[in-house]
Structure formats: structure tokens, C-alpha cells
Protein 1
Amino acid sequence: MNGKILQLRAKSETVLVPNYAKLDFANCPVRDVLQQIGGKWATLLMTALAEKPHRFGALRRMVPDISQRMLTQTLRDLQRDGYVDRTVFATTPPSVEYRLTELGRSLYQPVALLLDWANANHEAVRAARSRFDEAAL
Amino acid sequence: MNGKILQLRAKSETVLVPNYAKLDFANCPVRDVLQQIGGKWATLLMTALAEKPHRFGALRRMVPDISQRMLTQTLRDLQRDGYVDRTVFATTPPSVEYRLTELGRSLYQPVALLLDWANANHEAVRAARSRFDEAAL
DNA sequence: CTGTATCCACAGCGATACTG
DNA sequence: CAGTATCGCTGTGGATACAG
């Protein structure tokens, strides 16, 4: 149990060093994953791709409120981490298909559970917030 | 399947409105949860508290590289969302105990699965990144 | 159709100092 | 011991314009 904590937090040695934040991030692989999940679009795109592969434009239509910039960037990040495969078809006009890799599909399993939890319990969270904010008066 | 997507993304009506970002966040409960997970300290503190309740100072020692400010703030956020209970003991000096609520414990289940995944697969992610960055030359 | 490049606003987080 | 207040940096994400 303690081991899990140690893996999540920064290395203890670096605590002695001033301005250690940048160094630590490189040493915490768990954050690499959580960072994506916490990002605004990553889980959403993974959900879309979990259904079936999609093209750039299709994803754009499925998530109409994402900017082109963030769609490209998020897909790049997912590809970089090995969650998504990008295939270019040299047609005219060119088309690009994105699909979940094996790694991506395996990551999506626990992620989906989390999404289910969020959907099931957001009412409770809302209520807790209201109570807290009420009491803070 | 489509329903899940719709719940995750912002409401479609607001797409028509300029500068709709702020409005949407209030309408997307799933993000409320993911936001915390993606935060730098929330999952770490939940992991610590999943073991057993702890006092402020104990948490500070368990996570030596967290600032006082972020420890307080993260605990407040967790408390606000109903994941954590805060109990003040009117001793001298005063002590405060934090413990996971039922809701917090239920959230921690899927979160723990995600952490396990991250621990198990961060090597693969690292490798994928290296390959990607290599190819980008 | 599928991107890149640039600029900018805001929120998250850290450092530091102060308080009941 | 357990916070609060203030400041400043940095990273994330949005708007817009341009390109192969």
C-alpha cells in the first residue's frame, strides 16, 4: 500500500533540491497517464474511438465543441503515448483514420469504469457541493 | 454508446453561443470527477487516506513534496465533493483528521484500477513515446 | 480534408510570509 | 498544529488565420 504512494509522488531525494518540480514530473509515470485522463478531451476521444475507428472529420462532428487545434493536439498526444494509431490514406482529398491500439483499448477498460462511476454518482457529488457551499456562508 | 459521449461533451445547444466554454463546464458532471483525478495531488491523497484516516501533519509527512497551500486546497476540494470527511478535535494543540467517506471509497475503487493500470503499463507508454519522438526527427 | 502557426486568457500550482 | 493570504510563473486550451 505504501509502495503505491511512493510511486505516485515525486522521489524523496529531490525534496532537498530547490525548484524540484520539473525534475519530478519526469520520474512519475503514473502522472503521465492521469494527466491525459484529466485533460479536457482525451477521454472523450477515447470513448468515441472505443466504438470504432474514425476519421478526423468524423471526430470533429462527433465533438462539435472541440477546436481544430485541440483535436489535432489531443490525437497527437494519444498517438505519442501509444493509445491511438494514425493511418493516412493517400486519396484525394487525403483522409486520415484514427483507431485505438491494443494498449489504448486496455487503458480504456478502467477509464470506462471511472466514467460509469461519474455518470452514476454525479448527483451525489453535486449534492455534496451544494451542502458544502451552503455551510460556508 | 452514443449516450456516453453526449454526457461527456458539452451541450450541443451552447455550440451556437460565442465564448461558451464557461457555461459548458457547469453542465458536464463527468468532468467534475475527472478534473480531480487529473489534478496533481488528489489521487495521491486519496490513496493515502484509503489506507486509513490521517491527520493533516501526517499527510504532510507522507507527501513531503506537497506545499501547505496545495495540501489544504486539495483536501478542501475533496471534502467539498463529498469524498473526504474532516473532523476537528478541540485539543491543544488542535488536531484535524481526514477520512474517506463512503462516496470517496466507492470512487477510489475505479481510481485504484486506473492506478494499477498505470503502474503496470507505464513502461509500454514510455517506449511508445520514445518511438514517436524518435520518428519525429 | 487534415492539419500548422500564432497569439492570448485563464486556471493550477509553487514559494513565501503571516495567523489562531 | 493547521491553516490563510499574496504573488508570480507555467501549462492548458481557445480564436483565428494560413497551408499541403
Note: Residues 39-41, 67, 69-70, 73, 94 of chain B lie near DNA strand C (CB under 10 Å from a C1').
Protein 2
Amino acid sequence: MPTGAIPTDTLPGGIDLYATLESGQSYLWRREDGRMYEDAPDGQPWYCTVIDGEALRVRQTGRAIEWESSGAAEETVRTLLRLDDDLPAIFEAAPDDPLVTEAYDYARGLRLVDDPAFPTLIAFICSQQMRVARIHSMVTTLAREYGDAIEFEGRTYHAFPTPTQLAAATEAELRDLGLGYRAPYVVRTAEMVADGDAHPRDADGLPYEEAREELTQFVGVGDKVADCVLLFSLGYLEAVPLDTWIKTAVADYYPECDRGNYLETSRAIRAAFGGGYAGYVQTYVFHYLRTREEL
DNA sequence: CGCCAGGCCTTAC
DNA sequence: GTAAGGCATGGC
């Protein structure tokens, strides 16, 4: 059984695993104590996922990121959690204003994730008009109902369904699982990928705004969901998803960036957030605004 | 009860 | 190209 421990002091800027995995950017991990999003972890809980058919769990101890897997290697952990990102350099590129400073101080060590493209696409199709905990619940349900089961260390894990597995679901089934009006979006997008008509990875490598446009071909995907896939899965760290929280931040802190439409407002806030790492700033600000009063 | 949540689709101008 | 409705569900 592959296991390992990655010393925290070897990671530039350290890491806050809790903030990284419970900030609403990834919906593909589950906290083993079952209290995800309810409370800050009491102790050092394992977070579990399935990646490329292998069970993987990680936890943060006082001095390391420990991991255990049925077959994944350390490189996978480093990739998924973006452990090589240079957080001090990223902070250095961020604007020096009160909101951003507070957001960074609130969750130092939060790292972006690098999740697989298809699950991320579906998760954020499900995300519209939903709260973070319910999105996570919906993704967990899809894995349980349609994904492969994997036994590891006496526990059963469920992979997120493949495009083919999810395309075999019906709209009625997904409505019964609580997806509401997103059900046909999920089925139709899964069919597009399963049939080979398109894949979210096809956007990878295109210039940022072209990549975003490419992703909107999927049913249920507009500019905002496309930005989430670009940021959390395809490595476009400049992407700034304009959700309700960030729109509030724009109105309250950067009113000059509101240009009346997504494209131009996106360009303005991306510049205000420092350009190339604007998506990092966005994720810190989102996490701060959404949870600062709730813990 | 009404309001809101990591919005998008369709239709009408 | 932009604006308005409609849309499911659950928590508060």
C-alpha cells in the first residue's frame, strides 16, 4: 500500500488542508468524520477521494501531509493539492488592499486544487443556485449511485461516475436524487462527453477567454461555471468566477470594476486582483466572505 | 412563511 | 447584444 508523508515545511507558504478542501472549490473529497462544512476539524481528520480508479486519503498533522492510497503515488497528491504552488510569490502578486489582506490572513495556506475535468464540470453544473454543502451532497450522491465502488482499508469508496456511466442515467432519476432542474443539464452534458462530441479537457491550452467560450458549449455551462472549471481543473489561475459573493465584493469594494456584463467585468476584476494569479485571490475572498461569520 | 444559494436557458425586444 | 421570467430544492 503506497503511503507517504510530505513535510509541511518543504511547501512554499505551507498548507491549510482544511481551508483547501472545505472552501467550496473541490467537491470530490469527503471528510472521514462526516462533518464536512459543519465545523472546523477537531483533530486531524482524513479526507478521502478516488482518483484514476485508486482510493486516496490525506490528512494534515503537525508537521506533514500524510497520505495513503490503494495505488496512487505522491506525485498525484502533489498535483491534486497544487503543493508546488509558491504561495509567498502568489501573495506578493496580490493587490495590497484591506479586503484581500483580510482574506489572506483568514486562511493562510489555502491552496487551489487541480481536480479532474469531467467531475469538476458536472459538479459546477450542479452548483448553480445551490449552497456549498448541498453541492457536495449532490456530487456524493452521484458517485454513490453511478460510480464504481472501491474497497480500501475496510471501507468502501465511490469514484465519480465516468461520462458513460452518467450518460446512462435518466433525467427522472436525477430529479429523484434532488438535482432539480439541473438534471437534464447533467444528462445532456454527460452524453456529449460520452459520445465523444466534446471533452472539457479540449479547452486546455487555448487562450483564457477562448477556453471559457469553448466550455460554454456544454449544456448548463455559462461563463461562471466555465470559469470554475478553468480555475479548479484546467490550471487557468487567472480565471475569476463571478458568483454572487464575488459580485457582492465588486459592488462593495471595487465598484469601478462593474462594467455591466460578464466579459468586461471579468477583465476589470481580473486586473484589480493582480492578473495572472487573480483566481487565487478570488478563492481566498470567496472563502472569507462566505464563512467569516459562520464559524 | 419568504428569501436565498458558487446561474443558465429561453424568449422577446 | 441585453433584459426579463422561469426553474427545483432545502435551510434558515
Note: DSSP finds 14 helices and seven strands in chain A.
